[in-house]
Amino acid sequence: MIDFDGFPRLTTDRLVLREPVTTDAADILVFRSDPVAQRYNSAPLRDLDESRGLIEEIRDVYANRAGVIWAVTLTETGRVIGIFGFDGWDTYHRRAQVGYDLSRDLWGRGLATEALAAILAYGFSELGLHRVEAQTIADNEESVRLLGRLGFQREGTRRDHSFEEDGLFHDGAIYGLLAPERP
Ligand SMILES: CC(C)(COP(=O)(O)OP(=O)(O)OC[C@H]1O[C@@H](n2cnc3c(N)ncnc32)[C@H](O)[C@@H]1OP(=O)(O)O)[C@@H](O)C(=O)NCCC(=O)NCCS
């Protein structure tokens, strides 16, 4: 079980997931300022200051023991290519929400699946989670496919839940994965 004494470091075949630090701001800005990647996510970041602000926010999640959010790096280069993690951790109900984003130049290679599988394994074993929840825009096809590949079930729809850059309202989709169901 996690004791918050030192940030957990995870490794997979192609990735190292580690503590996010302020000096990651330039790498993170690359994908979090991408309007295409961010079309169904929060507003694109505009500059390094905003990127540092995001890093502070995700570090605070760990500092406040509300979850663990990792900087995902490519083992080969050390470049930060994504942010994956848990927030909203409820230790009584043993549930948390998962979030993820990956640099668009690396989509379609299975890297998000690899990172998400690693953090789910960590969440179920080390955080003692029973339920992992994901909320995504129903039209976010890559995100929906990613959740499906890892065994998440769609549990509901929030009609017209968000107003997006394309000037339209989009349904929100709620997904859940329970510990006994994990692949
Ligand atoms: C959601 C997101 C992380 C998914 O990324 P992704 O690249 O589609 O997912 P993966 O890296 O796991 O790649 C999977 C694809 O690679 C293919 N692939 C290629 N090589 C592979 C390999 N070695 N192993 C597994 N899959 C591989 C798979 O077949 C799959 O293709 P498909 O989508 O056509 O079925 C990405 O689209 C993203 O960052 N979006 C923007 C941020 C966002 O919207 N986040 C969600 C907010 S709720």
Automatic annotation (TrEMBL):
Residues in N-acetyltransferase domain copies: 15-180
Gene Ontology cellular component list: cytoplasm
A Pfam family annotated for this UniProt entry: Acetyltransf_3
InterPro entries: Acyl_CoA_acyltransferase, GNAT_dom, N-acetyltransferase
GO molecular function: protein-N-terminal-alanine acetyltransferase activity
UniProt name for this protein: N-acetyltransferase domain-containing protein
Organism: Microlunatus phosphovorus (strain ATCC 700054 / DSM 10555 / JCM 9379 / NBRC 101784 / NCIMB 13414 / VKM Ac-1990 / NM-1)
